[in-house]
Amino acid sequence: xxxxxxxxxxxxxxxxxxxxxxxxxxxxxxxxxxxxxxxxxxxxxxxxxxxxxxxxxxxxxxxxxxxxxxxxxxxxxxxxxxxxxxxxxxxxxxxxxxxxxxxxxxxxxxxxxxxxxxxxxxxxxxxxxxxxxxxxxxxxxxxxxxxxxxxxxxxxxxxxxxxxxxxxxxxxxxxxxxxxxxxxxxxxxxxxxxxxxxxxxxxxxxxxxxxxxxxxxxxxxxxxxxxxxxxxxxxxxxxxxxxxxxxxxxxxxxxxxxxxxxxxxxxxxxxxxxxxxxxxxxxxxxxxxxxxxxxxxxxxxxxxxxxxxxxxxxxxxxxxxxxxxxxxxxxxxxxxxxxxxxxxxxxxxxxxxxxxxxxxxxxxxxxxxxxxxxxxxxxxxxxxxxxxxxxxxxxxxxxxxxxxxxxxxxxxxxxxxxxxxxxxxxxxxxxxxxxxxxxxxxxxxxxxx
Length: 449
Hints:
Helix content is 36%, strand content 12%. The chain is α/β, with parallel strands linked by helices. It has two domains: 1-60 and 77-98 and 127-142, no CATH class; 184-438, Protein tyrosine phosphatase superfamily (Protein-Tyrosine Phosphatase, Chain A, Alpha-Beta Complex), CATH 3.90.190. α3 packs across α4 (85-93).
């Protein structure tokens, strides 16, 4: 059970805390649930004033009930009218926002095979009732963002207590972040065939726009979004694995956006299913992808990833070729995460070191199959490791929230979200061990361990 901090709750102006907090302790409620109950008391009249007649009625929770370590089963805590308190809190936070309507394309998603629905792993994101507009503010009490690096491991221990109950709740609160944004360009009839999965579509506000071709008014579309980074605003482009019919658009994007690094975190074929079409030449012969000429210069195959160097040029500017490096991580399974944290951390470090050595690195393109799960995990880990190196802080939750405001489903599963935490924990442990070994007293201390 998480200890309820009365002083902290008082500091945000919840005047009922003194009377409610002891009851929450007595009933063994989590910090999130306690805060939600407080918000229900304060926000119910305000919520009613903004045009919604009642809170959504409770039903079965989408997430599975969890079993705490002590073996006693957790009770779902409900409000007086039967609704879940997390639903109530999500509604209160978003009472000023209009609820988005489900489009006909959404209702048809998932009915025509692999193209219609993509979920990495078993802990999948599914479309949820539109009233569940839960955002990260509901964890403002249980999650200090960003965290000092020295406090991260103790914070993670709290999140992982009771079968990772708080970690699961924290991830669940990110479910609908950004999902009310329009995706009209992706839903145009001329662009539907350019989407690998019908439920993974780019937001209009952050989508990458290609230069339009005269013969095709929809030729500016590609399933890709700009993603902010730590160094400049649009540091990454998150995109899907190219389809046979979108390879030309992929290379046109690379050329127009002045891309020098491409990160690929999927295999072309996994478990007998095509996840990404091969979009580069297999030998040294130049290949044309639309107006972009691509030539493979070298290929270095390592046990866990492959590095390929290309020379690319535009037919109208053959005198001014560019160099592009592709980092292809080859041991990430479609379902689940890599077996160890060390492998992906080293890969992320390798990519970042190479980018930092480049004089004008430009935008980095990152893709997997759908361009959300493994792609989001890579980008978040890259950003968080930079935070650690530069400021000794950690903000995983804030990074995921930021990504999801720019592209849906980024860091798609709870398993991936947990894996990022484990990577950071292991990096901090390795750093601590390295500091201890550098200490002149370490050999003496180590002999007593």
